[in-house]
Amino acid sequence: MTTKARPFSASELAHEAKREAATSVGRRSWAAIAANCCLLLVGAGGGALLAWWALSFHHSNQQLWMVPVGLVLLGTPIIAWLSVFVSGVGRSLELLWAEPTAPPPPDLDAER
User: Fold this and answer.
1) For this UniProt entry, which segments traverse the membrane (predicted)?
2) How many domains does the chain divide into?
3) Contacts of 71 (CB under 8 A, 6+ apart)
């Protein structure tokens, strides 16, 4: 028993391409949301660690390891967000400031 494969029509191929594009965009947006949530949690954890140290241990200068760890946890997401933002802005500004390229002039010498 052999089944004959029917050829795909252009509309079926276009529909399939749109479905795959929508799926990949959806996956990318979920990945971005997950990454932002993780960065937010890490930053909040760093801020909470610094607040805990300031309220509980600052007056006696104990548990000093909490300060650099809290600063690293608080500062890393901020630097990551800024670098992503600046890289995106830089690309869009390059496109905005780029001079449009004119097409080459037509060849006016008819003998060539």
Assistant:
1) 29-53, 65-86
2) 1
3) 46, 50
